[in-house]
Amino acid sequence: MGPVDRRREGRIDVAAAIEGDDDRGRSLASVRRARERERRQAELARLRSGQERVVRDVVIPDLITVQELANRMAARAGEVVKALFRMGVMATITQSIDADTAELVATEFGHRVRRVSESDVEQGLEGEVDTEENLEPRPPVVTIMGHVDHGKTSLLDALRKTDVAGREAGGITQHIGAYMIQIPSGDRVTFIDTPGHEAFTAMRARGASVTDMVVLVVAADDGVMPQTIEAIKHAQAANVPMIVAVNKIDKPGVNLDRVRNELLQHEVVVESLGGDTQEIQVSALKGTNLDKLLEAIILQAEVLDLKANPNRAAEGTVIESKLDKGRGPVATVLVQKGTLNQGDIVVAGAEWGRVRAIIDDMGIPLTGAEPSEPVEILGLTGVPSAGETFVAVEDETRAREITEFRQRKAREKVAAAAGAARGTLNDMLARIQAGEQKEVAVVVKADVQGSSEALGVTLGKLSREEVRVRVLHSAVGQITESDIQLAKASNAVVVAFNVRATTQAREMANRDGVEIRYYSIIYEVADDIEKLVKGKLAPIQREKFLGYAQILQVFEVKRLGNIAGCRVTEGVVKRGAGVRLLRDGVVIHQGTLSTLRRFKDDAREVANGYECGMSFYNYNDIRVGDQIECYETETVAAD
């Protein structure tokens, strides 16, 4: 056994190897590697501690994302997340934390903190108050108000010597118009023409907020009516002087004393009764005393001593806005201070843009607009709400900051409202037990912002205790597939005001059974929706779409006027059916055909793909590229 034991002495068994009994030393390379690693770690720690020694001023708003806070401290986002984790706050780098938590983290990292409110981006947006020596006289801004059909637009017409009333559906002003006219004395006056129907209350109130004085139009035969009273209240609330224009004095048997006494009941005392409100008797039809009305306006302007500083950044108000097919978002603005120049960067509500073009009310391009001048501006990123203020700012960065803040605020407001509307589970159960609150859901699409807003106000007034009218979506432009999807999901009616559905949207609506109702007069919308609310839908006149024709050429024919050379692009066109003329998806005329011909023969109907000639009764403003929509109305029993 002795020799075997000796042989085994030089061997290492597994147990000994694991226990490390061997006394062999570490290799030189291994030691070098370890030392290099230690040196690198020490270097990294030194660098890190050096970074932390740089004390920064960290600006912290009301809410800040973890990533943004890390950027502002020049630290790694992961380190910030760890610091929050140690404080008991679980947050990813994309989540927002409040200002108090962010301050604790920044202090822990050894930085100085400066707290700011997000709304500070709006500070200094409105310019400084002008000094007396910088002010120069400016034209007065006059708002024309009064009851529907008392002749506001006709009066403005007579003043402008143009025909505005002839282009309007049912003789009702559908949109706010703003015009500047130069009167024979050389003075200039800006007129804002507000829609006269009760439904436009919100717009009319806004009209009074940008105005220097109000011309209250009262028809001599009708006297003071509900909307006249409303207009008086708006003018009094806005604390602006009023001039009473008694219109239609050419009508036989009018009693002016009755009008004066009715005005007296609403605290409007005219000069003939010893008051200080000027009263002018006019006839828009005959053009009587228009010069006296203009004199009264100029006199009132002199009393008010209207001044503004034209040599500063522009400020003003958005009067109207729309989405134009060829030009993009278009806003009609009234400049109130400073001069608006082409190329200026403006912020209008939650939208901004560089002014690409400035166009006056006659469609003439301008390079600049001075105080009291109403102009259309092109170049905004979106359609601003009517009634918003607009301000020229120094650069794009500032404009973006302000609009992003405002858009975020608007989104938060909508989210909060949606949350409030949902209510608690108990509220919902209570509603279900009480027979479920019924509602009429509506999607509104209109041709301009003011109309969509006014429709929202109108429909809001129709809600009853048992049945609620809910406007799911209200916007400007054509009806798209997404509108139909929204209406289908919510079982809603689509209300189209002077706009049309795209072909795809119309097909989708037919397929999914979504009802699109087309209107061009606002109280027809109110009447129809009210019938829905009452649940007593009378037999309705439903439109049946027949076809579309595209105008390829326009021929001028003596005694017949303009004839449109068309190709039928969809469906059929029938003589005797109703027709509408569409330009860029917006209705500009509704009437009947006076002529429908194939070659030289009269035709009863023309089918898809064929060409034909058409002309309208008493309407000649047709252009190449316009679309003609043909439809029939049929009486359908109530559902």
UniProtKB/TrEMBL annotation:
InterPro entries: EF-G-like_DII, EFTu-like_2, IF2_II, IF2_N, P-loop_NTPase, Small_GTP-bd, T_Tr_GTP-bd_dom, TF_IF2_bacterial-like. It is found in: Cytoplasm. Coiled coil: none annotated. It comes from the Bacteria. Gene3D superfamilies: P-loop containing nucleotide triphosphate hydrolases (3.40.50.300), Translation factors (2.40.30.10), Translation initiation factor IF- 2, domain 3 (3.40.50.10050). Residues 137-307 form the Tr-type G domain. Signal peptide: none annotated. PANTHER family: TR-TYPE G DOMAIN-CONTAINING PROTEIN, TRANSLATION INITIATION FACTOR IF-2-RELATED. One of the essential components for the initiation of protein synthesis. Protects formylmethionyl-tRNA from spontaneous hydrolysis and promotes its binding to the 30S ribosomal subunits. Also involved in the hydrolysis of GTP during the formation of the 70S ribosomal complex. This is Translation initiation factor IF-2. The gene is infB.
